[in-house]
Amino acid sequence: MARAGLSVVLLERGEFPGAKNIFGGVLYRKQLEDIVPEFWKEKGFPMERHIVEQRIWMMGKESVVTFGHRNEAYKQPYNCFTGLRVKFDQWFADKAVQAGAIPVYQTVATDVIREGSRVVGVKTDRADGDLYANVVVIADGVNSLLGKALGIHKEWRPDEVSLAVKEVIALPKEKIEDRFNLEGDEGVTIEFMGETTLGMAGMGFLYTNKETLSLGVGVMVDQLREKKVKPYALLEAAKQHPMIRKLIQGGETLEYSGHLIPEGGYHSIPPLSGDGWCVVGDAAQLVNFVHREGTNLAMTSGRFAGEAIVEAKGRGDYSRASLQSYDRKIRSSFIEADLKKYKGMHQLLKEQDPELLFDKLPHALNEAAYQLFLVDGLSKAQKQKTAIKLIKDAAGGTVNLLKLGYKGWRAMNG
Amino acid sequence: MLHLIVCIKQVPDSREIRIDPVNNTLIRQGVPSIVNFYDLHGLEEALRIKDEHGARVTVVTMGPPPAEKALKECISLGADEAVLVTDRKFAGADTLATSYVIAKTIRKVEEVWGPADIVFCGKQTLDGDTGQVGPGIACRLDLEQLTYVGKVVRVDPSSRKVTVHRFLEDGIEVVESSMPVLITALKELNKVRRAPLPGMIRAARYKPYIWTTEDFPDLDASKIGLKGSPTIVSKTWVPEVRKINGQAVGGESEREIAGALVEQLWKPVCRKNSGGHREGRESACLREEKLNRPPIGPITAACW
Amino acid sequence: MSESISDKLFTIRYKCDDVSHLIIKERDSCLKCAKKDCNYFCPSDVYEWDKKQKLTTVAFENCIECGTCRIACPYDNIEWVYPKGGYGITYKYG
């Protein structure tokens, strides 16, 4: 918007952009490139490591079944990379400031100002704090108090959000490279599920940064509440798991953090625009939790909103009808397609006993793998039978397993 | 209209400073920079005078280019103009060289925006802690100086008089001075305001004046930067943690705990508890020498 | 490498306001509440039931501003706003 010559104010409640922000740690090249072309060539771009390998771990009590893919082809150009928000957000916000946006930090937008059905600005927590504008882009994150003030979404339910806690753990560069089998700026991501969430619906992650690791665990808030587990105890337990313990050994915790993740998916997306406003990113529940993608949906939705507003400015019309072009851009993009694909997922996770998906099955899988690879005199045919039986039993019989498989397929391809 | 000049410095936030255990130097990396908070109290007082009498407030600082951010903060609070004096040649300055350059800067500010009536400085900086720059400037500019000011009682533009309270170790000194005068500010001076939104927006757009050595043709090169700084840091070290004979007091109720605490505090009786004009400086007396007087009650007789 | 929660919170920079941005709406609701869920789900131990005083204490200075309590309090009893601009937590890494 600033590039197009519009007058833009960038409101941020923290000391600087990124001061209050955390995420798991993976950023995607494509979506950022659409906003800042060839950003990776820039000196001072705050990349941690570009990702050459992604692993998915199913955790047993002291075991893991792993699925992963490493490919040199992810290097040219990078597919995705790890980052730390405090550095990245400042870099990103400076792009906006360089383009002419007016940075106003340490200021909370507390409410929207309305004239009839039109949004004409925001109230802030400063003296003489009313700020008027043709369009307000609501980008106040998962808690989106502005979205609530506007009435576009009610409070999230505890089964629509996850709480993730994270630590940044310092480890020498060489140790990271050795432990994860890396050269130079290469990096690895690991997502893990099973034992580490104590039967709750959730996932953990371990990402490599330059000289730190990002380790986190997230679980659905309703289940966390039910289990009466301290979120940080969950993280501590994950750190003790032998598969993780050995990777982080000797590291020093530099920072602890926590954040909610909107997991409602497609059905939780509120109206995206109206007279004088658009809503983007987490505030609009635009998170693909199956693929841990949030930041790129946020950046892309922000770009779409910006484009739509520039077009609206050209027409001199900031009405709902005019700003609908933002909705259309979202609907015809990967954002809507991806969220739609997994639209049944949330329901599936709600209906299924979380114990089954996040406890019994991962454990059965580990046990099956253990039996399969154990040489103890039993015939291979018997072993295969045992392994299959273990998994079937975990699901409560063949029929249930098939049902689950079918439901899972539907949820992922709705 | 009064012209008030406020001298500030951008310093690392002392709450975040760690000391490198190997080199005994300050680890400045990752430590946020803030406006030295004593300076902010000076600015706030200037702004209060501006609110009451109308005044022009000009902020000056010497430092590297990022100090621009500190000046913008002052603009957001309500300062009219801000000047950054920056040049590699100024680097490495001690208090002597700094006060020389700041004094020159103030002279130049006066040429541009009119003669100064009051110059505000902080009592000291959070990083240097010397408290010498303010008096140094006053001396070079031949200004009256009022150090350790905890309260400005009155500013009278017509009689050109200023009355302040100086908070000294043994009491408060009420002093009147004529303008132009230099005041060094304590944190007791006032509560710093929160910038209003229009101030934030003005600050975001504001570009401070940037002056380099070239803007000061009559500068004596031997008096600036490292060359002009006779101070030598011969050694730095981390002081050993002194053993303090701490004692925990306890009790069943708040009243009992408070009683026990007061009893302990009362033991080292405050010597200067009579005839004082301590006005709100209660904590200082706790440091006074012990007189080995036996604890005496009741609480109401205590020196605070 | 196992740290207590106070060690963890010590890694975050805080600038505390003198008034709480978290407010318990009705003390009675906490009295009625049998499970005291907030004592567990909060990632920075803001809430603690004080048996003697019979009220939930709010250590708002610890708050990492995640919003869980607002959503998960079974009695919807927590008034939750952001700390004043510039106050509260500041991450160093994020």
Automatic annotation (TrEMBL), chain C:
Name this polypeptide is given: Ferredoxin-like protein
Chain's role: Could be a 3Fe-4S cluster-containing protein.
Family statement: To ferredoxins from P.putida and C.tartarivorum, ferredoxin I from A.vinelandii, ferredoxin II from D.desulfuricans.
SUPFAM superfamilies in UniProt: 4Fe-4S ferredoxins (SSF54862)
InterPro entries according to UniProt: 4Fe4S_Fe-S-bd, 4Fe4S_Fe_S_CS, ETF-QO/FixX_C, Fd_FixX
Lineage of origin: Bacteria, Bacillati, Bacillota, Bacilli, Bacillales
Pfam families attached to this UniProt entry: Fer4_ETF_QO
Residues of the 4Fe-4S ferredoxin-type domain: 20-52, 54-83
Chain segments annotated as coiled-coil in the UniProt record: none
Record keywords, A-Z: Electron transport, Iron, Iron-sulfur, Metal-binding, Nitrogen fixation, Transport
